[in-house]
Amino acid sequence: MTDLPPAGEHRDELPEELDVSGYVGQYTFPDIARRRIPTVIYLVVAGLSFLLWVTHRGSGHVLVNDGFLWVAVALAAIALYQWSAAWPLKVGETDALVAAVQRMGFPVGHASAQLGWSGLRSRPVWRILLYSAEDPPRRRGVVLVDGVSAEVLFDFVEDNPEDWSSLKRA
């Protein structure tokens, strides 16, 4: 049996800009400020719903009722929140890694960065795990870098507790 959909049926797929399978080179995380596009759509639908409610209330119209008002209020509230959470991602992965390396105080070997969000308004924060440059690494650290201002929010360094003795170079 095959996993292919029947002819003419559409399956969900990643947007082209998020599909990394064909990409060669440094990956650029899409800007979070794109959340403002659906926000505008929500506000337009909220405005139209409110306009319909205002023009048809009390007229006994069957298809327009107080639900239009509630939809308008709900969509406007969602849009306001989404607009406030659409932080511009001004700090890229490379800039965040540079800020983290400067904070560590030791030569860095391997490092890994992950974008996360913090707080009620989902402010972007880079979480960076770093290992010292020795082989095997003697120290490791984690650094949180604000994705909007490049400010280091948190850092922690410790001796590497991992046992690397069983891994021998050939």
Structure write-up:
This protein is an alpha+beta fold. It folds into two domains: 32-84; 93-159, Roll (Nuclear Transport Factor 2, Chain: A), CATH 3.10.450. It has three helices and four strands; from the N terminus they run αααββββ. It has helices at residues 36-56, 66-84, 93-104; strands spanning 108-118, 123-132, 139-146, 152-159. Strands 1-2-3-4 form a four-stranded antiparallel sheet, with helices on one face. Strand 1 (108-118) and strand 2 form a beta hairpin. The longest helix is centred in the first third of the chain and has 21 residues, at 36-56. The chain starts with 35 loop residues before the first helix and ends in an 11-residue tail after the last strand. The model has no long low-confidence stretch (mean pLDDT 83).
Q: Number of domains in the coordinates? A: 2
Number of strands: 4
Average pLDDT figure: 83
Count of helical segments? 3
Largest sheet: 4 strands, antiparallel
The helix/strand class is alpha+beta
Question: Percent of residues in beta strands?
Answer: 15-25%
Radius of gyration in whole Å, from Cα? 25 Å
How far apart the termini lie comes to: 45 Å
SSE map:
Elements: H1 36-56, H2 66-84, H3 93-104, E1 108-118, E2 123-132, E3 139-146, E4 152-159
Antiparallel strand pairs: 1-2, 2-3, 3-4
Helix pairs in contact: 1-2
Would you summarize the structure shown here?
The protein has 170 residues and is an alpha+beta fold. The protein has helices at 36-56, 66-84, 93-104; strands at 108-118, 123-132, 139-146, 152-159.
